[in-house]
User: What shape does this take?
Amino acid sequence: MTAQGFLEGCAQVWNLVVVYYSVQILRCALFSFPVLGFVLILRKTVFNNTVFLKGMLWSLFIPLVFIGKMKFFYETRIGVRWFIWIDNLCFRHSWLCWLYFFGIIAFSVSLYMKRKRLKKFISGMEKIEICRTKVFISDVSITPFSFGAFCSHIVLPKIILSEYSRKELEMIILHERNHIKLGHLLIYLFWDMLRAFLWVNPLLTVCTRYLRQDMEEICDRVTIKSCNGSVYEYGCLLLKSIRFLRDDSREINMMAAFNGEQAYEDIKRRITMVAEYKPYKRAAVRSLVLCVLVCVVASAGFIKSVSYDRCNMMDTVIVISVDDLKTIADDHELNGAIRYDENYIYVDSRALKAAFDANDYRNRELAICFGGFYKLPGIGGGGDYMIVKGSELCRDAKIAYEHIEDDLVMKLMKLI
Assistant: This one.
């Protein structure tokens, strides 16, 4: 392969990647609207007062990210009628797919820069040990928060060292440690990634506050339980934090946890939920979490079982006129009249007459194309071909051919 051919092949691979994943992501984005609506309705009705179940509703977005390759979109009447327009749009206007990908990149860069600025802000802070925990101390009166999905840090404002008792400090640090322990920082990271990939659904960004509210309520319950159910002291600490601390910067407080979510109604609801705290059994909650995880994994597994593989081999044969590149007969019309194995092409001349009369093409060159692969119907390539005279198809034949080995470009296309 020449350098120019390789570069052209790489350009084809990139275009295929963009179109292939745009088709899938746009389907996920489309379905994210009803899923989000379903979550919001349930958290306000059936699960309004069930803190743990309400928080687990957000796990419905995990199976959502796997639906892009489901056979439902191609092999059912409803799927084709209602969703094939996405494929047509992406195939006909690949520039829209590139535009969508640039949107993902821009959104991701914006989120990354916010986190980078926050990390830089934290790195300039003093680091001390409080209650056997190393924390960063901020001179700004921001609300305490934890940051870092994989290397977590706790940030406290300097004012609480003088205004809060040791027991209050222990409760605040315990609250932040519970956020880390419960995996809330990983959940926030996943949500940010979801918002970036499905940026055409702005409601995901709008409803981020509801996700954080639910995680806060869960963390409040777990912290109160860890403090032996001291609801009154915890409620007083929450009110005291709201009175002393403030949001000096939205970017700095993007991970803030102890701030009551700023709005009066959110503060009121959070305090009400704390006041209505009822003891729970940790074993029951662990069982519930395990059950939800099993359901999520099972859902993802089921979706994968009814989806196309990364690379799907084709067992089809078509006959094309070399002169005008017109398809003479497709696999359905041939109906087994032309078969192949690893070394030979087999022609059944009698069966072939049901598809077309080879005598009409006796002196013309015909291309028998077969094999290949597809990522999704309409997206694929590869395969073998053999150029023959029409006269060779007028009788039963066994035609030897040389298998075309996949080049580097084709291997890359199969891997993505």
